[in-house]
C-alpha cells in the first residue's frame, strides 16, 4: 500500500477571520517584510483571491502579481489587502 502525500498548505487551515488575524499577527511578530507579504498571499488564497481583490479594489491579476514571490507591493496595496482580509495595521 502506497501512501499519497501532498504538500502542507496553511491556507487550507485558515477557515475563519480569527484564524487569518492570528496567522498574520504571528508572522508580523516572528518574520520579516517578505514573510508578511507571503502571509498576505496565503491569507488571500484562503479567503479567495477574487473576493480579496474585489474588496481591495484591485484586479485579481494585479493582486497575484503584487503578492507573488517576485512582487513588490506598495504600502497602499498592503493596506488595502490587509483591510480586505478583515484586519488593520497598527503601530504599538
Could you please describe the fold and organization of this structure?
With 92 residues, this protein is an all-alpha fold. The protein has one domain. The protein has helices at 17-30, 33-47, 49-56, 60-66, 75-84. Helix 3 crosses helix 4 (60-66) and helix 3 (49-56) crosses helix 5. It is globular. 27% of the residues are buried. The model has no long low-confidence stretch (mean pLDDT 95).
Characteristics of this structure?
mainly alpha, single chain, 5 helices, 92 residues, globular
Quick summary of this structure?
By secondary structure, the protein is mainly alpha-helical. The chain contains five helices and no strands.
What is the chains' assembly state? single chain
Number of strands: 0
How would a textbook summarize the main sheet? none
Uncertain spans: none
Strand pairing plus helix content: what structural class?
mainly alpha
Order of helices and strands: HHHHH
Shape call: globular
**Ends: how far apart?**
53 Å
Q: Could you tell me the mean pLDDT?
A: 95
Protein name: Putative addiction module antidote protein
GO molecular function: DNA binding
Organism: Desulfobacter postgatei 2ac9
Pfam families: dnstrm_HI1420
Amino acid at each position: 500500500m502506497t501512501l499519497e502525500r501532498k504538500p502542507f498548505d496553511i491556507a487550507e487551515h485558515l477557515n475563519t477571520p480569527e484564524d487569518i488575524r492570528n496567522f498574520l499577527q504571528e508572522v508580523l511578530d516572528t518574520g520579516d517584510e517578505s514573510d508578511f507579504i507571503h502571509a498576505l498571499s496565503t491569507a488571500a488564497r484562503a479567503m479567495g483571491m477574487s473576493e480579496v481583490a474585489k474588496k481591495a479594489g484591485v484586479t485579481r491579476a494585479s493582486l497575484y502579481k503584487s503578492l507573488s514571490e517576485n512582487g513588490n507591493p506598495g504600502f497602499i496595496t498592503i493596506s488595502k489587502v490587509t483591510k480586505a482580509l478583515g484586519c488593520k495595521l497598527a503601530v504599538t
